[in-house]
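Working notes for the structural subgroup meeting. M.R. asked for a predicted model of this chain before we commit to crystallization trials. I am recording the input and output together here so anyone reviewing the notebook later can reproduce the run.

Input as submitted:
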Amino acid sequence: MLRIPPSPSNCQLCDRSERLTKHHLIPRTYHSRRQFRKLFSKEDMITRILWVCIPCHKNLHATFSEKTLGLEYNSQEKLLKSVEISRFVDWLKDKPVGFKLKVNRKAK
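Returned structure, recorded in token form:
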């Protein structure tokens, strides 16, 4: 049986102690697509998950399209190397617990 990684106590991007959500590093909408099935195993697609706070999660999806996230930013390391994400994470780190983010969708 495939197991999803357990939830840590802090966001895996900004390291804030918040309520966490599962971010599928390989978007579920692409699991059945041939291109993704060639690149990733079924186990990898299901278990490759990042636990992130709601502001980080919203920012990920506002910054990049699902396809770009799955093909180019499919690991924690790749996401944190992105200039857009690393700038956001640096900015967010000092915000209080419960901070609500308003985003405009501009996914690439």
